[in-house]
C-alpha cells in the first residue's frame, strides 16, 4: 500500500500556512512546491521559502484527504500550531477518519 501524508508548510515571508496531501515523499512534494511545478495559480507560488511545519502519516489517501479537509475547515493558525504541539490531537484525527 502506498503511503499518504497530510503536510503543513509555513512561509516566513508570507507568515502563512499551507495544508496539502500527497502520496509522494513529503520532501519531494515540498521541492515541487518550491520549484513551482504546480502551476501559476497555485497558492504556494506566492513564496519560495516554504518549509515543512508538520506532517501526518496516514493509512491511505482517502484518510489523508479527509484529515486535510478537516484541517482546512478549521481555518485557524492556532489549530495548526496545536496539532504540532499536542500529538494526541493527531492521534484523535487518525482514529476519527480511520477506514473501517
TrEMBL record:
SUPFAM superfamilies: GIY-YIG endonuclease. PROSITE patterns: GIY_YIG. Residues 2-81 form the GIY-YIG domain. InterPro entries: GIY-YIG_endonuc, GIY-YIG_endonuc_sf. Pfam families: GIY-YIG. This is GIY-YIG nuclease family protein. It comes from Mariniradius sediminis.
Amino acid at each position: 500500500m502506498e503511503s499518504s501524508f497530510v503536510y503543513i508548510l509555513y512561509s516566513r515571508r508570507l507568515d502563512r500556512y499551507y495544508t496539502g496531501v500527497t502520496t509522494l515523499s513529503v520532501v519531494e512534494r515540498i521541492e515541487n512546491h518550491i520549484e513551482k511545478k504546480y502551476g501559476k495559480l497555485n497558492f504556494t507560488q506566492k513564496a519560495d521559502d516554504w518549509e515543512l511545519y508538520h506532517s501526518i502519516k496516514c493509512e491511505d489517501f482517502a484518510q489523508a484527504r479527509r484529515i486535510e479537509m478537516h484541517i482546512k475547515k478549521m481555518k485557524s493558525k492556532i489549530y495548526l500550531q496545536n496539532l504540532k504541539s499536542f500529538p494526541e490531537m493527531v492521534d484523535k484525527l487518525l482514529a476519527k477518519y480511520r477506514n473501517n
